[in-house]
Amino acid sequence: MLAPEVVRPIWSAVPAVSVGGFTLTFGFRFFAQLSSLTMRCSISRTLVRYSSSLDGWAWLPNEKILLTGDACVNGPYNYTGDGNIGDWIKTLEAVKKLGAKTVYPSHGPVGGAELLDDQHAYFTALTDEVKKLTGKDPSEVKQSVEGIRETLKKQERIARYAGNFFPAQVEKVFVELGGEPFLPKTASVDDHADHGVAQCTASQFRPRSVIRTNAAPVRAGK
């Protein structure tokens, strides 16, 4: 994966969407009608910034199916290194209004609209706990990480989200609130590598039906 600052100027100069096999390259938003399948895709910048400035969504309005990318996961998979948790919460609030019935997260089992609610609840609870430490020395916040984790894990609805990335998530919120980092600079790099190899179950991507089409490449919308 190229860094966002490398990819962004390249993508901004490519107005077309090319469709071939299962590979899809597009600008910041496009609409496609393939056979009976209607799909709208967008880069998250069309909403607000969250886990990365180049993460994407796919929304099938007729089927009420939402593919969330890394904006919503089902388990301890939230990598927040180049994201913004405050904006992430706002993005989830906006996407919930679509009325999805089936949600395909980037990591973890498929679920319903409750996945969006749970992901939103997790980041909201995390932010509320870190806010209590506003103005504290970074070393104090670091010592409080496990206490915050235990507090969140007592909430059955969101307990599954507090995993190996938790210290970095606490730091991210603390920095967004005006604090200073307290983890080694290499921590984000290590977390990103771990996030990249996180595996989803094969059944998550097994389609119920297959739609075949010989549709021509779709041009990007404005």
Q: Can you describe what's shown?
A:
By secondary structure, this protein is of the alpha+beta class. The chain is 35% helix and 14% strand. The chain is built from six helices and seven strands. The strands form two sheets. Strands 3-4-5-6-7 form a five-stranded mixed sheet, with no helix packed on it. A two-stranded antiparallel ribbon has the order 1-2. Helix 3 crosses helix 5 (166-176). The longest helix is centred in the middle third of the chain and has 18 residues, at 114-131.
Question: What is the topology?
Answer:
Layout: H1 4-12, E1 18-20, E2 23-25, E3 29-34, E4 37-43, E5 56-60, E6 65-67, H2 85-96, E7 102-104, H3 114-131, H4 138-153, H5 166-176, H6 186-197
Parallel strand pairs: 6-7
Antiparallel strand pairs: 1-2, 3-4, 4-5, 5-6
Helix pairs in contact: 2-3, 3-5, 4-5
Give the key terms.
alpha+beta; five-stranded mixed beta sheet; 7 strands; disordered N terminus; disordered C terminus
* Oligomerization state: single chain
Q: CATH superfamily membership, which one?
A: Ribonuclease Z/Hydroxyacylglutathione hydrolase-like
How many E-type strands?
A: 7
Low-pLDDT stretches are 1-26, 30-35, 42-49, 197-222
> How much of the residues is beta strand, in percent?
5-15%
CATH topology: Metallo-beta-lactamase, Chain A
Short description:
The protein has helices at residues 4-12, 85-96, 114-131, 138-153, 166-176, 186-197; strands at 18-20, 23-25, 29-34, 37-43, 56-60, 65-67, 102-104.
